[in-house]
């Protein structure tokens, strides 16, 4: 599975691995759909092991964010590589998402 | 139902005397990575940095996927033709589909606040931003992308 789910300080942390693209996006989205169906209030997505994201991957993350916001859920993205972060900057998705440096920052700012 | 030769992809790679390499693939997502891998393998030994490799891979896959989806409508009988060549320190990639073309200028700005969550046009936008030059033919079914491989002053291994 490209997503492993953990828990720290009562927060759900999703560790995504590998590539988020046209091929893997459905498998990446599935565990999030499950968390969203149970209205998980706060999710941290740790992207430290993500090596590649295409426009389908960005669209998948946008869908996850939209679905979470529909019930007032909050999402933070952490541990992005500088290259992937640059894609968020170019596409201005950095303004849509709450992007933090690492898990610690995500936890400390998740109030 | 058309039966595809499993070696069709390999057989379709043809190198012309001009150094241009042609790749023809059916409109199926499973061939996407093969096309980008083939082009990236041609860059090995050229001292191209990881960031540029990422950009090139992304833009090839975005352009080919657009050709499959919007040009050929995933019709497996329709081919996406990719041509690439390296001139000096510059990579050129052409991606052509069998569609009637699209009005690339009409694509909405995906970074506009009203479009940001719509997930449309982001692939084309990324290509424009990450490549050094992007041109479309008049019909709108062929895009030519150009990427400088090395910063000026770098030594390029032949």
Walk me through this protein's architecture.
The complex is a heterodimer of chains A (111) and B (158). With 111 residues, chain A is α/β, with parallel strands linked by helices. Helices cover 40% and strands 32% of the residues of chain A. A 5-stranded mixed sheet of chain A has the order 1-2-3-4-5. In chain A, strand 1 (3-8) and strand 2 (11-20) form a beta hairpin. In chain A, helix 1 packs parallel to helix 2 (55-69). Chain A is globular. With 158 residues, chain B is of the alpha+beta class. Chain B has one domain (8-148): Histidine kinase-like ATPase, C-terminal domain (Heat Shock Protein 90), CATH 3.30.565. Chain B has helices spanning 8-12, 32-41, 50-71, 122-130, and strands spanning 14-15, 21-26, 79-87, 90-96, 133-136, 142-148. In chain B, helix 2 (32-41) packs antiparallel against helix 3 and helix 3 (50-71) packs antiparallel against helix 4 (122-130). The interface between A and B is medium-sized, with 20 and 22 residues.
Key terms:
heterodimer; A: 111 residues; alpha/beta; Transcription Regulator spoIIAA; 5-stranded mixed β-sheet; B: 158 residues; alpha+beta; Heat Shock Protein 90; 6-stranded antiparallel β-sheet; 29% helix; globular; disordered C terminus
Could you tell me the mean pLDDT of chain A? 96
Classified in CATH, the superfamily of chain A is: STAS domain
Oligomer: heterodimer
What is the topology, as strand order, of the major beta sheet of chain A? 1-2-3-4-5
Q: What is the CATH level 1 assignment of chain A?
A: Alpha Beta
Q: Name the biggest interface.
A: A-B, 20 and 22 residues
N- to C-terminal separation of chain B?
A: 45 Å
Q: Work out the strand percent of chain B.
A: 15-25%
Q: Remind me, CATH topology of chain B? A: Heat Shock Protein 90
Principal-axes shape call of chain B = globular
Instruction: Determine the CATH topology of chain A.
Output: Transcription Regulator spoIIAA
């Amino acid at each position: 599975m490209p997503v492993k789910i953990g828990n720290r300080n009562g927060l759900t942390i999703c560790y995504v691995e590998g590539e988020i693209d046209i091929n893997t996006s459905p498998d990446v989205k599935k565990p999030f759909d499950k968390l969203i169906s149970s209205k998980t209030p706060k999710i941290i997505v740790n992207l430290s092991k993500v090596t590649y994201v295409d426009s389908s991957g960005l669209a998948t993350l946008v869908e996850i964010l939209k679905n979470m916001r529909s019930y007032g859920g909050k999402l933070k993205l952490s541990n992005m590589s500088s290259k992937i972060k640059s894609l968020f900057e170019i596409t201005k998705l950095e303004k849509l998402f709450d992007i933090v440096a690492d898990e610690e920052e995500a936890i400390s700012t998740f109030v | 139902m058309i039966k595809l030769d499993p070696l069709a992809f390999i057989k379709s790679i043809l190198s012309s005397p001009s150094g241009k390499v042609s790749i023809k693939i059916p409109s199926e997502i499973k061939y996407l990575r093969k096309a980008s891998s083939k082009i990236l393998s041609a860059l090995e030994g050229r001292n191209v940095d990881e960031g540029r490799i990422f950009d090139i891979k992304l833009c090839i896959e975005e352009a080919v996927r657009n050709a499959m989806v919007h040009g050929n409508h995933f019709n497996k009988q329709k081919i996406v033709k990719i041509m690439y060549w390296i001139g000096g320190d510059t990579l050129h990639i052409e991606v052509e589909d069998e569609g009637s073309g699209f009005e690339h200028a009409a694509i909405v700005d995906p970074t506009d606040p009203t479009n940001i969550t719509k997930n449309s046009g982001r692939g084309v936008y990324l290509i424009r931003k990450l490549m050094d030059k992007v041109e479309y033919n008049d019909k709108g079914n062929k895009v030519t992308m150009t990427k400088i491989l090395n910063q000026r002053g770098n030594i390029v291994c032949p």
